[in-house]
Amino acid sequence: MKQSRLFMPTLREVPADAEAISHQLLVRGGFMRQNAAGIYSYLPLGHRVLHNIQTIIREEMNRAGAQELLMPAIQPAELWEETGRWGIYGPELMRLTDRHDRRFALGATHEELITSIVRDELNSYKKLPVNLYQIQTKYRDERRPRFGLLRGREFLMKDSYSFHATQDDLDEEYTNMYNAYSRIFDRIGLKYRPVVADSGAIGGKDTHEFQALAEIGEDTIVYTDSSTYAANIEMAETLDRYDMQAADVLALDKVDTKDNKTIEDVARFLNVDPKTTIKSVLFNVDGETVMAIVRGDHEANDVKVKNALGGLDIQMEEEATIIDLFGCEPGTLGPIHSPVKVVADYAVKYLVDAVCGANEANTHYTHVNAERDLSHLTYHDLRFVVEGDMAPDESGPVRFARGIEVGQVFKLGTRYSEAMGATFLNEEGRAEPLIMGCYGIGVSRTLSAVIEQHHDDRGIVWPKSVAPFDVHLIAINTKDEAQVELANRLYDELSSTYDVLYDDRKERAGVKFADADLIGLPIRINVGKKASEGIVEVKVRATGEVLETTVDELPRVIT
Ligand code: ATP
Ligand code: MG
Ligand code: MG
Ligand code: MG
């Protein structure tokens, strides 16, 4: 492609409304333009990257045995009424009415639609399992569309749905998809972590999110360096509310509670400074470290103890189980002087209660973790470890990081098939609901996530696998005949092997270099003063490495 012909409207200035670096660079580099809040056009450069991401996704989905189809974006309201989601989904679902007053939704997701398709067809165990996917535009009227493609109202998603006769079969496919997702994000060049996630309102139990690590991310994940374990603690809102930072866990102060008998005593003993950031409390039960993450939830007044992270193998100083305490309405514990104190009070109160069996919190705890009876324990068995900046020389092994949810895999079970009467005949000839899984990837969000991780102060640094072109060929001085002649020749030759963007514009070198850095193709070939000697300069965008080479050696140098 000759750059003189490419529709690539670049900007020198940072667009005023663009907070996220990926949003700024996509607009400045001429990859996209905004048409309305959360609604964008992908210009040729952006479209090429999207295409490359989709190719990787298609290759890996097909290789994993899934089949591509394409469903409509417009879906009849009746399907959403069958599952009750027409009501539940709320204002995020975009709705419209046709000329006959029939109601429709713009697809935010396609569980209902796919289930309506298969319910008449997948009627025997002999036809199972099946995994169907599409790459399609989704619509969600997000409360806060922001950060460009990271949270759009119209966006591209790869969504797939699998159907099974047995739970074991679903489990197997879940692992298959989990592995396919890992290959996809590896190939795209993202640093990510699969994390245990909250199954929330959809029900079902197993679900993982694939979180691309980036400061702009709206999710907070907790992980350790020494194990593959990680989880979404879904406390980003709480962090905002308490004005806390999701930074690494700092110091751990080990407090011996042997001589303290009451909650108040323990709280006093912990001597929590109002400036201390407390995100969780570790304590020791029967030689096992237990970590509680505490957060407030305005919607629930009751105390719910959720074993969000329990049972997983976490390598810390000691083996640990993590409990997520939530549902604590701030302000119910009497006079509270600072948000941090609220968290500390709750931490102390509910941990002690949960472990010592002092009140109903324990009921919830034992309810969610029934195989462990902790009721025999007393304060004497506890060792509190408070994270924060109180003993600041020791850094903790549990870390917090911000993540962008680029994908999610989910065992749906029979929620949709039961509601919509999607059954199959099992081997004994009895009708049973189809067992389902669903698996999503935010295609357009992934594009932005890549940039969040791969840029420098001059622009984007595309990983090879998704770059809009492989090679940026630049004729530095278009008035110099030898340069133009050699650049033309290289353009022809390299184009048989590579996607080449050829900057043939009559612009100053400085302008060309600035644009080249901005759009970030992996390899740049500068055809300059030494063109007459058959020598060009190769620059690697990611490392800044520059080397001269003869034209004969060039193919070897750039592979
Ligand atoms: P989020 O928590 O960010 O709102 P979600 O959990 O609602 O996302 P899913 O229903 O799991 O999203 O959809 C599958 C994937 O679609 C997500 O993992 C994400 O990558 C992508 N996605 C969801 N909402 C958006 C959006 N508004 N803009 C861009 N991508 C999105
Ligand atoms: Mg959402
Ligand atoms: Mg989510
Ligand atoms: Mg999700």
UniProtKB/TrEMBL annotation:
<dbReference type="Pfam" id="PF04073">
    <property type="entry name" value="tRNA_edit"/>
</dbReference>
<dbReference type="InterPro" id="IPR004154">
    <property type="entry name" value="Anticodon-bd"/>
</dbReference>
<dbReference type="InterPro" id="IPR036621">
    <property type="entry name" value="Anticodon-bd_dom_sf"/>
</dbReference>
<dbReference type="InterPro" id="IPR006195">
    <property type="entry name" value="aa-tRNA-synth_II"/>
</dbReference>
<dbReference type="Pfam" id="PF00587">
    <property type="entry name" value="tRNA-synt_2b"/>
</dbReference>
<dbReference type="InterPro" id="IPR002314">
    <property type="entry name" value="aa-tRNA-synt_IIb"/>
</dbReference>
<keyword id="KW-0067">ATP-binding</keyword>
<comment type="similarity">
    <text>Belongs to the class-II aminoacyl-tRNA synthetase family. ProS type 1 subfamily.</text>
</comment>
<keyword id="KW-0648">Protein biosynthesis</keyword>
<keyword id="KW-0030">Aminoacyl-tRNA synthetase</keyword>
<dbReference type="InterPro" id="IPR007214">
    <property type="entry name" value="YbaK/aa-tRNA-synth-assoc-dom"/>
</dbReference>
<keyword id="KW-0963">Cytoplasm</keyword>
<dbReference type="InterPro" id="IPR023717">
    <property type="entry name" value="Pro-tRNA-Synthase_IIa_type1"/>
</dbReference>
<dbReference type="InterPro" id="IPR044140">
    <property type="entry name" value="ProRS_anticodon_short"/>
</dbReference>
<dbReference type="InterPro" id="IPR050062">
    <property type="entry name" value="Pro-tRNA_synthetase"/>
</dbReference>
<comment type="function">
    <text>Catalyzes the attachment of proline to tRNA(Pro) in a two-step reaction: proline is first activated by ATP to form Pro-AMP and then transferred to the acceptor end of tRNA(Pro). As ProRS can inadvertently accommodate and process non-cognate amino acids such as alanine and cysteine, to avoid such errors it has two additional distinct editing activities against alanine. One activity is designated as 'pretransfer' editing and involves the tRNA(Pro)-independent hydrolysis of activated Ala-AMP.</text>
</comment>
<dbReference type="GO" id="GO:0004827">
    <property type="term" value="F:proline-tRNA ligase activity"/>
</dbReference>
<dbReference type="InterPro" id="IPR033730">
    <property type="entry name" value="ProRS_core_prok"/>
</dbReference>
<dbReference type="Pfam" id="PF03129">
    <property type="entry name" value="HGTP_anticodon"/>
</dbReference>
<dbReference type="InterPro" id="IPR004500">
    <property type="entry name" value="Pro-tRNA-synth_IIa_bac-type"/>
</dbReference>
<dbReference type="InterPro" id="IPR002316">
    <property type="entry name" value="Pro-tRNA-ligase_IIa"/>
</dbReference>
<comment type="subunit">
    <text>Homodimer.</text>
</comment>
<feature type="domain" description="Aminoacyl-transfer RNA synthetases class-II family profile">
    <location>
        <begin position="38"/>
        <end position="463"/>
    </location>
</feature>
<keyword id="KW-0436">Ligase</keyword>
<dbReference type="InterPro" id="IPR036754">
    <property type="entry name" value="YbaK/aa-tRNA-synt-asso_dom_sf"/>
</dbReference>
<keyword id="KW-0547">Nucleotide-binding</keyword>
<protein>
    <recommendedName>
        <fullName>Proline--tRNA ligase</fullName>
        <ecNumber>6.1.1.15</ecNumber>
    </recommendedName>
</protein>
<dbReference type="InterPro" id="IPR045864">
    <property type="entry name" value="aa-tRNA-synth_II/BPL/LPL"/>
</dbReference>
